[in-house]
Amino acid sequence: MFRYIDHLRRRWPVIAVACGAAVAFALLAALLMPARYQATARILIQQPPASDVRYAMAMSPVYLESLRSYELVASGDRLFQDALNHFNLAQGQSIEQLKRSVLKVSVPRNTRILEISVTLRDPVKAQALALYIAEQTVKLTHEYSATVERELVAAAQKQLDDAEAAGAKGTHDAQTAVDVAMEHLADVRASASGRIEELQVVDPGIVPSKPTSPNVPVMLAAALLVALAGSVLYLTFEFNYRLERFAAPLSRVKSIHD
């Protein structure tokens, strides 16, 4: 071990040159890379009224996990393509490749916040694109909610119409069915608006002033660590090789002496 440490001490220029070269190349690469800015818009997912029995466990882990379905809406290919066309950002890359490098949508753990982050070279366009996707997500969700409400009311109305058609015969059972259908329709109309979460943009985000990439300190630190580990590994192999070469003649001398 002492010989190995002494070997590293005598060969310190190798480590110094490797680390210096790695840091220099990493700094050069960071300077050549274009700056990219990340802007984030946030949407609050408001839970339905507590009176709705289906949401009695509204803050349960299962419910919070279900909120991730809104990520699929915000990160949809069609919405992303419409956003690119809206800001004239369409490029030669495919939608999937561009979306992976530009868009990030997530629901932080144990929250009802939908975060939409956009990374572009232009900080103004990054903030505008993030806000646009957030607003369109809210719009699409509201349209879906309205569609569900109309379908629920239409189904209840059809049930009432069928009951009234059967009640024209004047039977007691038919009249009871009409009363039940009317009560059901009233309940549906009263509670339809509270069956689905409401989304609201609570943070439109700001125009970022500092780039998120390239992260120069992280790049330099990573290059330094890799160069340090690589140079030490090289010197370790060198030490073992020299040790084996030195041990071979000694073994032959010992065999002759014996």
* Shape assignment: elongated
Task: Show unreliable segments.
Answer: 51-57
How far do the termini sit from each other? 29 Å
Helical residue percent band: 55-70%
Blueprint of the fold:
Layout: H1 2-10, H2 12-32, E1 37-46, H3 61-66, H4 69-74, H5 77-86, H6 95-102, E2 103-106, E3 113-120, H7 123-167, H8 172-191, E4 198-203, H9 216-257
Antiparallel strand pairs: 1-3, 1-4, 2-3
Structure notes:
It is built from 9 helices and 4 strands, in the order ααβααααββααβα. It is 65% helix and 11% strand. The protein is of the alpha+beta class and 258 residues long. It is elongated and about 110 Å long. The protein has a 4-stranded antiparallel beta sheet with strand order 2-3-1-4.
In short:
The protein has 258 residues and is an alpha+beta fold. The chain contains nine helices and four strands, in the order H-H-E-H-H-H-H-E-E-H-H-E-H.
Index terms:
four-stranded antiparallel β-sheet; single chain; Alpha-Beta Plaits; 258 residues; alpha+beta; 65% helix
